[in-house]
Amino acid sequence: MALHEEINDKSISVAARIGKLTADEIRKALDKILADMKRSQNKAKVTPERTKSVKRGKQTLKQLSKQNAGLSSVELKDPDLRLLSRTMKQNGVDFAPVKDGKGKYTVFFKGRDADALTHAFQQYTKKLTGKIKKPSISTTLSVAKQEASPATGRIHPDMLPLATETGRFASKNPNCQNMPRAGADDIGVRNFITAPEGEILLSLDFSQIELRVGAFYCKDQRMLETYQNGGDIHAQTTAIIYRIPLEEAADKNNLQYKERRTIAKNVNFGVFFGLYPKGLQKTLKFKAGLDVSLEECEKIIQNIKIGYPGLARWQEETKKRAAFRRYTETWLGRRRALQGIISPNWNVKAYAERCAMNTPIQGTAADILKLALGRILRGLPERPWLRPLLQIHDELVFELPENRVKEAAFFIKNCMEEKPFDVFSVPIIAEASTGHMFGDMKELDIGNE
Fold first, then answer.
1. Read out DSSP for 293-319?
2. Does some domain include residue 2?
3. Is the confidence at residue 7, as pLDDT, over 60?
4. In a domain, 142, yes or no
5. How confident is the model at residue 447 (pLDDT cuts 50, 70, 90)?
6. Is the pLDDT of residue 80 over 80?
7. What range does the domain containing 172 cover?
């Protein structure tokens, strides 16, 4: 089918019209559920200082704020984390990098020996520069202290459902989307979100939702079969990258298993968006601490295109369609203008092409989460004890009585895993975890109740 005929295809225009109606329904549902998150009388808030944790939280903030508390921070742009780690360890300084977005990091250093810290950082800056600050506490903790309501002992962030170009959630006062990930929170920022006495936190997180949406879009047979059969997409990608049997790729006893899988994960989460060899090399160095040659990165991307032929076709078709229309859109019809896609400037055009591929996947994943919120909202009147608390990326967090955990998890999981629209052909999985502190959540197996 010719490109102009495809663009005028009835199924696309019908999807867009249905999408507008659905988007309006989503908006109305979000208005209600976000109000529930915000209202203090419903106690549905992010709560770093509440009940028993109020005194402990204030003491911790006070301790961190002292001049010689042993916590300093440096703002860096695209730091060499491997070099930084090696330099700090050689000087006996513990550090924790927290990504702020777009390559920016706030790197926190722990250690009372200021001379050792200064010496270590001077060694690092022989190759890379940064602006060192006076000892200070984390931005998240500082803002939490300023924003905490004196009446409730909680913080009440503003949740913004359409504040990003792709349609993902954002938040401010404070920015809870900027919270450290569970495995990279050495300072313990997440533990400032706690449940009150007699209650517990419940989190449900979409598993690989963007990869699943990407598989749906590109219709690659191998990707679809992997997800439809409950397979391991990272093992499948490992097998494709290194041209090895799937059994070898999934063998945890293989000496190369960890490094290969790390590379496969980074490839999976970047390749849909047109990752170039240099970009892959940089990603593997800064995110995984791996030095992979440019030639090897080129080979990896070449093998991916051969192994997932549907992916390469979808990427080219998506870029051409966006160039013709001057916009890209999610499956439900929410559009993003891309005037730069026809720019004679290669950098501008390349960025717009990445947006053309990124927005349908990330935006549709965001729409799927909002559809799930709408379903959850319809069930809340029957469950007044279940209180929406927080939304971070692909994760929903709730506050509820401890004796209702499995009942709530089963209900929310069903809402999140429901087929978002008729043609969606990839199973959706939501994983549950629970705990009294957000930084200490344990996986919850709810079975088939």
1. -HHHHHHHHHHHHHH-HHHHHHHHHHH
2. no
3. no
4. no
5. low
6. no
7. 13-65+154-218+355-449
